[in-house]
Each structure stands twice: as C-alpha cells, then as structure tokens.
Amino acid sequence: MLITAMESIASSLKQNAIIPDVIKIFIDEVVDEFVPEALLDITYDGKKVELGNKFTTAETNKAPKVNFAHSGSDTDNKSRFTLMMVDPDAPSRKQPDCREWRHWVVGNIPSDGNLSEATNLDSYQGPSPPQGSGHHRYVFLLYRQQDTHVYPQLDNEKRNNFKARQFAEQYGLKLISANFFECECV
Fold this sequence. Notes:
With 186 residues, the protein is an alpha+beta fold. The chain has a single domain (2-183), classed as Phosphatidylethanolamine-binding Protein (Alpha-Beta Complex). The protein has three helices and eleven strands; from the N terminus they run ααββββββββββαβ. The chain has helices at 2-15, 18-21, 164-171, and strands at 26-27, 30-31, 38-44, 47-48, 53-55, 65-70, 80-87, 101-110, 119-120, 136-144, 174-183. The strands form three sheets. The protein has a six-stranded mixed β-sheet. A three-stranded antiparallel β-sheet has the order 4-3-6, with no helix packed on it. The model has no long low-confidence stretch (mean pLDDT 89).
C-alpha cells in the first residue's frame, strides 16, 4: 500500500508538470527519478490537499496542519525536516516570470512533525493568484535535513523568484516528499 502511494505521488507530480517545473531531476544531464520516501499530509480546516485538488483563496488563507510519515531510519528521533510551499505559476502559468513565489518555509521540524518546535523562516502567505491568471499550482516540498540548521530569516518582502532547489542544495537538504493543490482567483 505504501509503495503504491509513493508511486502515485511521483506519477501525479509528472502529470501536472511539478516535475520539471519545480522538482528538477537532472543530475549532470542524466535523468534521476524522484522516489518519495514520505507521505505528506496537508490539511486546511479539515480539507486535505490531495495531489492537485482545488481550493479557494478563502480556504487557504491560514497556515495548514502538516503531518508526515517517513520511511527513514530515525530510531533516536533526531532527524529534522524542512517544509517549503511555492507557487511555480506566478504571475501566471503561461508567463511564470516570478517562478517560484515563496509562500512558506519552515525548518528544523522534528521527526514527530511538531511545527511549534520548528523554525519559521518566513510567515505563511496564503495563495493570492491575480484575477484572470488561471489555476496556480501550490506545491509543498518536504526535505530531510542532515542536521539542525541555523537558517537565515527570509525577506518577507522578496518572495518572487525563490528557487527551492537552490535553497535545498545550499543547506544539504534531500527532497523526500511533495504534495500540491490548485487555486484560482474567481
């Protein structure tokens, strides 16, 4: 059952162009498959994010509840994780000049997923796609950290053109799961 869910995550990310728009899987010009190692459960006021389902801006204006089940060996519960939420479709999917818009970054999440013990690198910013820009994909990325980091506070005024992959490489983070929803201003 877990393997089927993991395969479903990777397949859905490809079908919805999260791979390659956000998750780049090229290493030295060779395609490297993304194999999820965790299930990422995101819930907004009781409604689950389910690999591309639709939400309204009103439903997502407050930070969601986040849970994850990872398959790594963490017998001493010392693993730490980083969660990012980005919009690769800013200002529109047809013209993503501001790709990726950073909506939220939380680091040093303990293995039990308790966000109150984590480090908020910036405040949560709910989706606000421009009128007439169509559906935007809002992507949650969960990374395993090598150790606890002293992250810089991110600039809440400069959220456009964030690059989750570059941030992950800078801090030695390994992508282990992803989930996403779509939202449109109507």
